Amino acid sequence: MSPVRSRSLAPETSALDMALNQRLSIFSAPISRASRRGFDRIVTRFGELTTRVVALERNLAAMKVDYATTQLRLENMDRRIELIEKRLSLIEA
Questions:
Q1: In the chain, how many H helices and how many E strands?
Q2: Contact at 8 Å (CB) between 24 and 32?
Q3: pLDDT digits (tens, 9 = 90+) for 20-53
């Protein structure tokens, strides 16, 4: 049996490939920085929007509570008016 040779799966890098990578890195570095800045702006904006949505949800919940309170007060007033009308014999019992 012959010994098994291990073969690298990565292709060998030639001098031409290395030179090309160096030249491309000149362009990729500013693009990478701009992408990071853009991503940071997106993350910041997302945080701001999340804060605004939470505030809207809180305000909506408060409005629902106010609506329910108003409805309850109107129902109580309606009952009181009915009792007053009965006492004054304005409606049939």
A1: 1, 0
A2: no
A3: 777 777 777 777 777 888 888 889 999 999 999 9
When computed from its CA atoms, the radius of gyration of the chain, rounded to whole angstroms, is 37
Whole-structure pTM value:
0.52
Q: What are 12-29's pLDDT values in tens digits?
A: 667 777 777 777 777 777
> Measuring CA to CA, how many Å separate 63 from each of 9, 50, 58?
64, 20, 9
How far apart are the C-alpha atoms of 61 and 71, rounded to whole Å? 15
Report phi then psi at 55, rounded to 5. Answer: -65, -40
Choose among 90, 72, 68: nearest CA to 81. 90
List the structure tokens of 72. Answer: 């309850």
Coil, strand or helix: which one is 48?
Answer: helix
